[in-house]
Amino acid sequence: MAAALHDEIARAADRLRASGLVAFPTETVYGLGADALNPAAVDRVFALKGRPANNPLIVHVADVTTARRLVADWSRDAEQLAKALWPGPLTIVLSKAGIVPANVTAGGGTVALRCPDHPVALGLLRAFGGPMVGPSANPSGFISPTSAEHVRAGFADAIARDELLVLDGGPCRAGIESTVVSLAGTSPCVLRRGVVSAEQIESVLKRRVLVSEGPIVSGAPLPSPGMLERHYAPRTPARLFDAADWPEILDAVVGEAAVVSHQRARVAHRPHGLLRMPMDAEGYAARLYAALHEADEMGATVILVEEPRGEGPLWDAIRDRLRRACI
Predict the structure, then answer these.
(1) Cα gap 77→59, rounded to integer Å
(2) Separation of alpha carbons 39 and 30, rounded Å
(3) Does the chain have fewer CB atoms within 10 Å around its N or its C terminus?
(4) What pLDDT is attached to residue 231?
């Protein structure tokens, strides 16, 4: 790690110890970090994001030793998943220990834990020496950030007031948020789809894993982050369309459309613009939020996103994000 980055991480750890906020990179998206055991610091995360109080936060840890301190019971399933898939884009939900502040869990009895697979995130956690909350570093409900530039654009005023320090670790390679699996019930259940599939979790646990069917709109404490009906959304109105709707869908647009498509045959003539997406699931996921940020900046009347038809768990996770971004 370069000396300058090492110094920045040390400065960020000092900021966390002083109850401050730090935006940091992970392999999925950039997180908005604060001391997870400091309720006042956690309140600052909710306030800066404008996040609903019933939406819990993921707690990032550097290792299993730290994770064990934060739960009432570190189960055999948790140990197996952590051994196989940490560091990585998997969040594990377990019954919380008493030391975890209530605002971290939105008043619920479980805590969501993850060990990120990014050298800057792990370096920060180790320098800080404790657990760190880390929801996506963007205003609540809008597009998640996959670069430091996205964070700076979303929180320009807070950065100008020196309320937020941004660690730049380059673009995030995975591009969508972690899979969340709950081990708090009688059967393991994926609450949010992500890069790690239910099948991968099943292969580790050697038993069936359920998958939650869609977002929750209740005002009660949510069991996991990422379960709100409208989420990951651009500020420009966005709509999903099917391949069969092309090109007639453009005829209904009053003004300009920013078209997001992975189909090579698509052509969008002026005044419309076209953003081409990778055709493979990994490339599409890594590019997704950056493309939505770019589409949002085009000044179009509407963003039209062609729904990808690829098969597989990662495509399912991508469609989950798109459907909630395009409500």
Answers:
(1) 18
(2) 21
(3) N
(4) 79
